Amino acid sequence: MRTRLIFVLSALGLLAGLVTAYVYGVEKAPPPPAFKPASNPYPRAVFANGIVESYQASGANINIYPEVSGTVTRLFAVEGQQVERGAPLVQIEDSVQRGIVEQQRAQLEAAQASLAELRAQPRPETLEVAKAQVEVARASLKTSQDALEKQQRSYQIEPRSVSKDVLDNAVNAVRVARANLDVAERQLDLTRAGAWIYDVENQEKQCAALSKALASSTALWNKYTVRSPVEGRILAVNVSVGSYVSAQGSYDTYTQGLGPVAVMGAPQAYGQVRCYVDEILVHRLPKGPGMKATMFLRGTDVSVPLEFVRVQPYVSPKIELSDQRLERVDVRVLPLIFRFEKPGAADVYPGQLVDVYIAEK
Predict the structure, then answer these.
(1) What's the pLDDT tens digit per position in 84-118?
(2) pTM value?
(3) 96 Cβ contact partners less than 8 Å away, ≥ 6 residues apart
(4) pLDDT digit string (tens) for 34-56?
């Protein structure tokens, strides 16, 4: 009985081993590829890596940096938004500069008020006072002259009726009254003449200087609002409320470096590809506008024909794609720029890496 049980178990184990060997020995068909790898569409071609950019005259995205330092208090734009030229993007804390502008505006208004006061002279009330003073001086002179005439007639009739001292005092009183009248008349002429031309010019210069100072402070105050330099689309906003920014940009926690507070692209329907061709392959490139090239979007079966724009005639280290400032291998490349119409089959974004084949000459 025991021998039979061992025999049955051995047979079952042998059968299980044969089934397992058969199951694992059957070759499974490989899954289809997620996308068709890029293949050379030309008989002979030069392969290059490319990066998608906004199509514009400069050939690069617009990196926006503030011209002043401070803490971000408000964001006006979001990524993907279409903005007009001059639209506000980022607001930097500006309380100190705003106070300086308000102070200088008040100083300018005070100087302008003083200038208006000088130009409005003579004041009618002041002129009336000067005229009244002339009338008082004339009346005083008339009184002194009448008193002198009476004393002189009395002296002529009876010399002993008026002393010599009293007569001399009367003569002096007339002289004083006549001098007072002359002073009053000159003061009236001075009042009628208004402000001195040199005082007016001096006040005008002060107003001009304060106006320029206010314009300078206002221009600096306006820089605390970072605005769009052109019409375009916001590609990236690299700051948030509370972040500190300077003329060198904002600190990025991930890259641990400074970068622009915002990146913009042109609004055209075209895109642009900047290709980097290895220097050892440059001699195989054709020349002129007849250059043909095709772009392949990674991860898709989409290929896009490219139109030649220009060559950037400067061979430089290949750091644009990897953003590494120190390369272990000094690979030098020649940038070529193409443009393309945005395909409808797939979305293409600035900064995206693509594969490019350029037909040889």
Answers:
(1) 999 999 999 999 999 999 999 999 999 999 999 99
(2) 0.64
(3) none
(4) 666 778 888 899 999 898 887 76
pLDDT at 351 over 60: yes
Q: What is the mean pLDDT of residues 154-181?
A: 87
Amino acid at 57: A
For the chain, domains (ranges, CATH) are 45-55+268-359 (2.40.30.170), 64-92+224-265 (2.40.50.100), 122-194 (1.10.287)
Find the angle CA(340)-CA(86)-CA(107) to the nearest 5 degrees. 160
pLDDT bracket for residue 135 (50, 70, 90) = very high
Q: Which two tokens stand for residue 105?
A: 């505006």
Q: Return the number of other C-beta atoms located less than 10 Å from residue 190's C-beta.
A: 12
Residues 6+ apart with CB under 8 A from 270: 55, 339, 340, 341, 342
**87 neighbors 77 (Cβ within 8 angstroms):** yes
Q: How many CA atoms lie within 13 A of 249 on its CB side?
A: 15
Task: Using the predicted structure, report yes or no on whether residue 227 has a pLDDT greater than 90.
Answer: yes
